[in-house]
Amino acid sequence: MFPTILFFTFAATLIAAALGVILARNPVYSALLLVLCFFNSAVIWLLLDAEFLGIVLVLVYVGAVMVLFLFVVMMLDINLAELRKGLASYWPLAVAIAGFVVFAMINIIVVKHLGGMSMRTAPALAANYSNTRELGTALFTRYAYPAQIAAVILLVASVAAIVLTLRRRTGGKPQNIAQQVAVRAKDRVRIVKMASEKRP
């Protein structure tokens, strides 16, 4: 009974925070509410015995992606009027997608006896069951090649993003690593011998 109360509490908070992300006028508030959404989602994952997914959600999204996104939002000068003007034309598509999502949720949760998906209870887990171990076993055995392909695609995307954003600025002083490594001491230091003079 208590896990059910916790689930509905965090689910309601998650829905309210998600609505706040959409309806907030300040982009910084939207980013902070999105962090709250991630935390509530992580707690729901923990309640579903998916500890690894909950921890990854907090470490990756909250700890890295959202912090970077928040700094970008705070540092950029965003014209909110122009942004809202461009988003106004997408309201019909947004309403259609939201209606489809609500219909799918109602079909799964409420109307299951009218042809919806059957809700089956999960089997009891063993005392020594480890969600992280099961996920790692599946990832490095059954899905080893798809994981490697995804890693290569992400590496190519990262390199492409760096190359596309690399700019040669006029007046800059870029480093030449090969020239710095090949330098010799006699090319940098010159010893000059001068006769000593006595002051009058």
Per DSSP, the total helix count is 9
How much of the polypeptide forms β-strand, as a percent range?
A: under 5%
CATH fold category name of the domain at 1-77: Four Helix Bundle (Hemerythrin (Met), subunit A)
Q: Main beta sheet, described?
A: none
Order of helices and strands: HHHHHHHHH
Proportion of residues in helical segments: 55-70%
**Structural class computed from helices and strand pairing:** mainly alpha
How does CATH name the architecture of the domain at 1-77? Up-down Bundle
End-to-end distance = 100 Å
- Classified in CATH, the superfamily of the domain at 1-77 is NADH-ubiquinone/plastoquinone oxidoreductase chain 6, subunit NuoJ
- CATH class of the domain at 1-77 reads Mainly Alpha
Radius of gyration from CA coordinates: 29 Å
Form type: elongated
Unreliable stretches: none
In total, the number of strands is 0
